[in-house]
Amino acid sequence: MAQDIHHETTPHGERAPSCTLVIFGAGGDLTKRLLMPALYNLARTGLLPENFALVGVDRLEMTDASFQLHVEKAVREFAADKHYSQTLNEAHLERLISSLTYMSLDFASPASYQQLGQKLQDLQSSHHVSQNVMFYLAVGARFFGGIVDQLGQAGLVTETPDQWRRVVVEKPFGHDLESAQALNTQLRHSLAENQIYRMDHFLGKETVQNIMLMRFANGIFEPLWNRDHIDHVQITVAETVTVESRAAFYESTGALRDMVPNHVFQLLALTAMEPPASLSATDVRNEKTKVLTSVHRVNPVTDSVRAQYAAGQHDGHAQVGYKQEPGVAADSTTETYVAMKLGIDNWRWAGVPFYLRTGKAMAKRHSEIAIQFKRPPISLFRNTATESLTPNTLVLKLQPDEGASLSFGAKIPGPKIEIGQVHMDFHYKDYFQNAPSTGYETLIYDCMIGDATLFQRSDSVMAGWDIVKPLQQHWQQQGATTLPTYAAGSDGPQASDDMLAQSGRAWRTLS
Ligand code: BG6
């Protein structure tokens, strides 16, 4: 097992140290749409290393020149997208392109990794780079273990005090607790824990990073952030996209594995964690893991719902049901929606339900964390019963309308005492200029400077899989069964509303 070697981290905001980035899966979609535009943005903001080289690795045959052309086209298309930069800076683009080389590699052939080692040596003289190397595995999850074994056997991930070697692993990290543990054991044969950067791109989102800031950089929220004042919490990650062309991946993955142990649980951990002793990767990740390991064992029968979208309408367009999508089995039991109720067994949260839901083909693309406070204990107002006072809700809006809002009651002007609900709204765009970003910039940069705060540590990945294990087991026992459905373009299945109604609560509406 590899030993941890400590390397100094570069302070945030300074140019990353010289390194080579090796991308496995360089011909794939992730590289084209997100990684390359992100690297361009890092070049534009002066954070990409001064001496930098990129080796694109894939099974396709390409020359350096054809790879450079492929990337140039991708950056022009995707970095110029309205979500990113409006105009391209040709000098920065040129700089990025000139750092690119390509190597066609058979992922399973030891000889290929010897050649890769030689290439990394050669880049030292041709591109004046150091021997720091970041390997980015932008490939299917089934390749992670094998590639890392080969890197280890070829001696490519051996660190010295002056040379770091890091491996970024995309999600999904396993498909259940056992497979995640097996993958972790396999990676740890060649890598120390601090060399593994387990990616969860939600942690690269500004609004997700803002959750900790909202809570711990303000004096007014934290004193109320507990079981004495909070009735329940709702975490929603709703998407309008359907399975699109991803049936091959999605059919065996489903909404639970695709979104919950990773993205949704990261939101849960950031919402429920205790203040960390410092912002170091260790302190922050310790607190997040503590939340996940304190989650009460879920009863899958009463506290979870899975469903599949049926035909419906979205934005005036007819949408076919999941089973009619290309590549999806006509009798598929893959869930495209999942909701659950969780409890956290600690002093802050005992008795406060956390309701989580995520789904595809829903009414609106909307991700938020809604903190619903308790009602006032009595109503002073004639004709208004305590139960009909609407509770205050603080909503952290993650995407696409980024911001926060607080709702409270106010007097409706007039001689009668009547209470109306009002909202105080904060929109990011009103205060801050939005930097063009794919969300991957921070994560790539953080790996280069050696800051693992925004990456998942193995214990939190395992804790996430452990929480969903009863659901996975229950669904497996149920075998082939007909899933509840929801109309595409709706807020989700009735069964999910029923789950909250049991305790007199209701989901916030999406539409
Ligand atoms: C990915 C999932 O991890 O996250 C996708 O595999 C999902 O199914 C996506 O659509 C959502 O991410 P974002 O950044 O588009 O909200």
Question: Can you describe this structure?
Answer:
There is one protein chain. The chain has 511 residues and is α/β, with parallel strands linked by helices. The chain folds into two domains: 19-199, NAD(P)-binding Rossmann-like Domain (Rossmann fold); 203-376 and 457-501, 2-Layer Sandwich (Dihydrodipicolinate Reductase, domain 2). It is 34% helix and 20% strand. It contains 15 helices and 17 strands. The chain has helices at residues 29-44, 64-79, 90-98, 110-126, 144-153, 177-190, 206-216, 247-250, 254-272, 281-293, 300-303, 428-431, 441-449, 458-478, 494-501, and strands at 19-24, 52-58, 100-104, 133-137, 165-169, 196-198, 230-238, 304-310, 312-314, 317-319, 337-342, 354-359, 366-373, 393-399, 403-411, 419-427, 485-487. The strands form three sheets. Strands 16-15-14-13-7-12-11-8-17 form a nine-stranded mixed sheet, sandwiched between helices. Strands 3-2-1-4-5-6 form a six-stranded parallel sheet. Strands 9-10 form a two-stranded antiparallel ribbon. α1 (29-44) packs across α2 (64-79), α6 packs antiparallel against α14 and α9 (254-272) packs across α14. The N and C termini lie far apart (52 Å). Bound molecules: 6-O-phosphono-beta-D-glucopyranose. Residues 171, 239, 241, 258 line the site of 6-O-phosphono-beta-D-glucopyranose (BG6). 6-O-phosphono-beta-D-glucopyranose is lined by residues 171, 239, 241, 258.
